[in-house]
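G., before I forget:
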Amino acid sequence: MATNSKIEWTTHTFNPWIGCTEVSPGCAHCYARDMMERRYHRVQWGMGQPRSRTTADYWKQPARWQRQAQANGQRERVFCASLADWLDDEVPIDWLADLLTLVAATPHLDWLLLTKRIEHWSDRLQSVSRLTHDGAAIASTWLEGNAPVNVWLGTTVEGQQQAHDRIPMLLEIPTTLRFLSCEPLLEAINILQYLPTVTDAKGTCGLEPNRLHWIICGGESGKEARTFDLQWARSLREQCQAAGMAFFFKQTGAYAIDSSQLHPVQRSLQDPKGGNITALPEALQVREMPLPLLQSAPVGHSRNQKYVPLLIKEVL
Ligand code: SF4
């Protein structure tokens, strides 16, 4: 499958705009700010600074991916806003309306909408719903409980506090599939209370309402990377296994330790982010994906059905 993203768990990356404000400890060494503000001087980061919309030409890319996915008969994933936050409330509201319209117009793409501002979901969509814009109907329908079927909704959880603050809000929002990005993970976290229960012996879990389905885990990269302990990842993986849900280990980051071994994890100069997971202990060589809903739905089933079997697909 053609891909334009270096991120292992997505096919494409799309940035509707660039710029943001730090909101929590996971933002401390924001690579997007480092690149777009300090290196390229493209946009100023922070509160009160205007966000920079990407070009009209760039916005046409998802329609091309959509045609390609449709022609290939395959769904493709789009990670939205690696250089911004799609629920940033300093973004002009019509830009968000345009984004929702684009998502609805590309049904062969699964849009991974990840945010550190999950608490803004309702206010932002209500603002869109009041506009005279095609996106208004999409926002209203979602607010009424019918999420766009090609949206996977995620929130970042870098520590226990963010788990308790953000996961309950994520669980309240209607969506096809919910995921967590635990990257950069900054401490051990326990999320068992938010995980689904295993539904059969093969480790199959279901798209039950108000449940999580997928977890991405990784350490921090860059010069100032904070410590990442492989034991935190083992614990998270065990929690996912116990719940029969998908776990994706992305990278160790630049400074990993393994407290079970009492020595730093060796880092290769060719692999500064620690993304070569074949070099890791076997228990962490895990890159599972949830099977896309629309592929897994048996022929004839409604797109809006509330429960569709969700298989775990090994991709490593
Ligand atoms: S939310 Fe994301 S893009 Fe925004 S400052 Fe934090 S890490 Fe950077």
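Residues 230-243 form the longest helix (14 residues). The chain has nine helices and 16 strands.

More on Monday.
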